[in-house]
Design goal:
alpha+beta, globular, 3 domains, Butyryl-CoA Dehydrogenase, subunit A, domain 2, Butyryl-CoA Dehydrogenase, subunit A, domain 3, single chain, binds flavin-adenine dinucleotide, Butyryl-Coa Dehydrogenase, subunit A, domain 1, about 425 residues
Length: about 425
Amino acid sequence: MTIDRAGIAPSTRVRDYVERFDRFLRDTVAPAEEHLADQGAGTPWQPALDDAGRMHGTVWQARREVQRRAAAAGLYTPHMPTELGGSGFSRVEMMHVEEHVYHVGGLGLGLAALAWTEGPGPHLAHVGEPARRRLLEPLMAAETTAAFANTEPHAGSDVLGMTTRATRDGQHWVIDGRKAWITNAHFCDTVAVVAVTEPGAGSRSLSMFLVESDRPGFSRGPDYPTMLDDGLTGELNFDGVRVPDENRVGEVGQGFALAMTYINWRRMCRGGMCAGWGALLLERAVRRARSRRSGGRPIGELQVVGHQLADMDADVYSARAMSLQAQSELDALGPFTIPLPPQARRLVSLIKVVNDEAFFRVADRAVALHGASGLGLGSVEEKLFRVARDLKIPAGTVEIQRNAIAQALLAGPDTRP
Ligand SMILES: Cc1cc2nc3c(=O)[nH]c(=O)nc-3n(C[C@H](O)[C@H](O)[C@H](O)COP(=O)(O)OP(=O)(O)OC[C@H]3O[C@@H](n4cnc5c(N)ncnc54)[C@H](O)[C@@H]3O)c2cc1C
């Protein structure tokens, strides 16, 4: 499929979003960042941690305030369908939005303005009417926050190896198990938990349920410190947690497909995220190459440094171009259909692996060009280098993406759109 330039250019409503986001950054986020800087609680991306190793409450509350105000300003959920209160943006439109938000938002509070794991995702479009009113609407308004609980201590890439069980009891389900490495484990109000409902039924063995954090039997486990050092990752325990059937997401047996809907959303978001942060690192590297001198001249005049810049540009440009093309093909296929066709799975995994690998190289070169200051704790380069290494693991490792691409290629001649 060939996509003309008009098909991947920012639409009018993307341009409108970008203008409103910039105003929001200036009028709402900048004063909040100034206030946060005076609190001694760290920054949004390098927060101080509390005694339990969790994100400092002051930083968390600052992010929450940005989320609530972004929702009120219509900036929080452009990716969600209009019938659920979102803006119904396509994947191409979302890539432009995400690129802009990460580029100008940098590592600041502004990133909280656009919903990610903590907000509503496309898997939640499958809840029934009662759960929609009770659980989804508060998430859309950023009155509450969410988590997605799939991974377990002994099952990560091997999703079907999970052991958390949900057993039917009349009009209720009883959930038992332990989930590990969960983003927003410490603060979430609503968890989308994936559990076994029909052992041995392969990709139909799982179902998804929404669990409120005040249900008896639900508890938060310890923090899992990672190299991100953001105090947001931890463990969740489900000890005989009873939820009504209306908390089920989608059909019984659709849990694997719904988990992939969430995970694929996060994979596709890599396109804009890496384009935005990649552009930020490249701009900073060019400034550094112009201003830092060696032997009486700017280091940018040294061929080896010029080549580093050129390689960064090549990675940022090619990953961005590939991602826009793939997102537009995904828009044509339906990025969240259940089941997802093999050609769509291939495109989603291509976006993730190409961006994760390219952004890691870009972040590595950015550190090199900044010398010791690129290694300085808290510098943009140091932080994004750690983020870049992290990105290659959550939402499916880069190895798992290669598996998915190869499987789609081998599945038959219809894998290329
Ligand atoms: C910061 C962070 C946040 C996270 N947030 C969440 C969250 O919100 N919700 C959630 O559910 N999970 C979350 N995770 C978990 C994440 O999705 C898993 O860590 C990831 O899927 C990999 O699983 P694993 O850690 O068990 O590694 P493993 O599956 O044990 O993999 C170990 C190595 O073996 C390779 N490997 C394993 N199986 C295969 C295979 N079949 N083919 C080829 N290679 C293979 C992997 O690529 C990897 O290199 C998060 C993780 C981190 C670090």
